[in-house]
Amino acid sequence: MAVHAPNPADEIQDMETHWMFFEHLFEEVVALELPAIHIGGYTFRITKFMILELIAAAIILLIFIPLARRIHTGGLPRGRFWNLFEGMLLFVRDQIARPNLDSHHEEHAHGHGHAPQPAVHDSDRYVPFLWTLFLFVLLCNLLGMLPLLGSPTASIWMTGGLALISFLMMHGCVIVRYGVKRYWQSLWPRIDMPPGAYFKVMGYGLTVMIGLIELVGTFIKSGVLAVRLFANMFAGHMVLANILFFIFLTGNLFLADRTTGHFVLWSGVTVASVIGVVALSLLELFVAFLQAYIFTFLTALFMGMQLHHAQEH
């Protein structure tokens, strides 16, 4: 007897009431009821993606707090995993933060014959934020590679929240460093116009218009960050789910009449689908790292643009 076909998109979407593991396992539904918090007349639900985000945060803490303690005490990371994790942090600092956020690299020497002091890196104050952002996005992406879990970054609401944090950092880093007055001055360009009341009014109008365009542009940049990450992760997992769905469809045909032809079809589709999913999973693994890098790199780039613009004023 044929089984009702599930929707492949259900496997990669958020779940609010139940975390569905198996819809039909030995004719039983295997699911975890998700908790809900009732505050007055409002019900706040803990969703599947919220739990996965907490799992990603816990993994980061469990890995990098011991690593930070070992480095702080002067110990050297040993083993492949410790060196891998430290290498990831150095990559974010040296290849993302410093090229985009440093205003200058200077070596200070105290007179002749003295060894130069280490270069001053303005970006180091923002490195912890970029580390956290990169690792969190990466872990959320990688959780989708594990069976029965999912990628929180396949939700536009989650990526929108990350983009909002990036947006606040784009403007907040300038305000904290240079103050509100200089921040607003950096948003409004200076336009030199010829003498005369007419040109003066025209200059003010152009300044306001260009300033508003610049401000709206920061919203657009943040929106692009959210859509880019969401689209790549959702599309990748959707393709994998649909390929595996072919096994279910052909298996349904075989269970309906149990003919040799349908068994051969089911077997062939199963083998081809598994091979295809394995190959695409390797590509999806690369995409998980790539999208974490792109999101962090663009955030650092936009922050650097705002900081350098304010510095010029």
Question: How would you portray this structure in words?
Answer:
With 313 residues, the protein is mainly alpha-helical. It has one domain. 67% of the residues lie in helices and 7% in strands. It contains seven helices and four strands; from the N terminus they run ββββααααααα. The chain has a two-stranded antiparallel ribbon with strand order 1-2. A two-stranded antiparallel ribbon has the order 3-4. The longest helix has 61 residues, at 197-257. The chain is globular, with a radius of gyration of 26 Å. Residues 1-5 and 105-113 have low confidence and may be disordered.
Features of the shown structure:
single chain, 313 residues, 7 helices, mainly alpha, globular, two-stranded antiparallel sheet, disordered N terminus
β-strand amount: 5-15%
Helical content, roughly? Answer: 55-70%
Major sheet summary line: 2 strands, antiparallel
- Taking strands numbered 1, 2, ... along the chain, how are they ordered across the largest sheet? 1-2
As a whole number of angstroms, the C-alpha radius of gyration is 26 Å
The domain tally reads: 1
Mean pLDDT: 78
- Which parts are unreliable, with pLDDT below 50 for 5 consecutive residues or more? 1-5, 105-113
